[in-house]
Design goal:
The radius of gyration is 18 Å and the shape is globular. It has a single domain (16-242), classed as Rossmann fold. The two termini are 29 Å apart. The chain is built from eight helices and eight strands. It has 248 residues and is an alpha/beta fold. It has helices at residues 8-11, 19-38, 59-71, 93-96, 102-107, 117-129, 194-207, 214-234, and strands at 16-17, 47-52, 81-85, 136-142, 147-155, 161-165, 186-191, 241-244. A hairpin with a 4-residue loop joins strand 4 (136-142) and strand 5. Helix 2 (19-38) crosses helix 3 and helix 7 crosses helix 8.
Amino acid sequence: MDINPSLKSLCMLPATCNLDELIASIQVLVADRKLAMSSSASSDRRLLIGFAGVPGSGKTTATAAIASALNGEPSQVSPAVTICPMDGFHIERAVLRTWPNSEEAFARRGAPFTFDGSAFVKCLQALRDGYGNNDVYCPSFDHSAKDPVANAICIPAECPVVLIEGNYLLYDAEKPWDSVKDLLDWTVYVDTPWSVAESRVIARSLDAGICQTEKEAHARCASNDTINARYVEASRKRANSFLTSQQI
């Protein structure tokens, strides 16, 4: 996909940037998009910026920091940026239980085949096309319930930039994931060493009650998250920018 001319501020980033540099660039981008819309210039769709990285890399932390920095007071009419997490497209546990390979599906939850990739692609298409016209509702993920929550996130029609975060935004080894990157205007790879991310994943499994003991959490990480991380790392070269992990 050709780079959108509106992305000039992101194109000026160094190949590897820090969080402050990225926030400053997106701030310029948001201002340009709002100006274009107010002046009736060509702004027929909003911009989608994707954040990919291995499990536990800090994608959620990075996008939350960007949104907090750019959105100002919570009372403002429309946010400058909103976040759409890929986690909301996990296939529900009740559905997984009906699968012939349900035991494998639960053991590998978080792998590409345990997400509703087609619904995710449709959501990205709706986000691209809905700027200035319609609010778009996206699912979130409830970690305590271990399931998605439908229509939990409202992306206002006037919001010019949406941050998409998820493991498989750059993954292109199978459909429909191979079409995701072309729906994103810019992609950032959160470049965290797996040794750091792995410790976060293990802690998260214990905190969420997915695993009851540290030994179980280590085993689950080795048999699931480490495999998923390899999928993600194999596609990292497709990113436009790399975000250093020092601030995440």
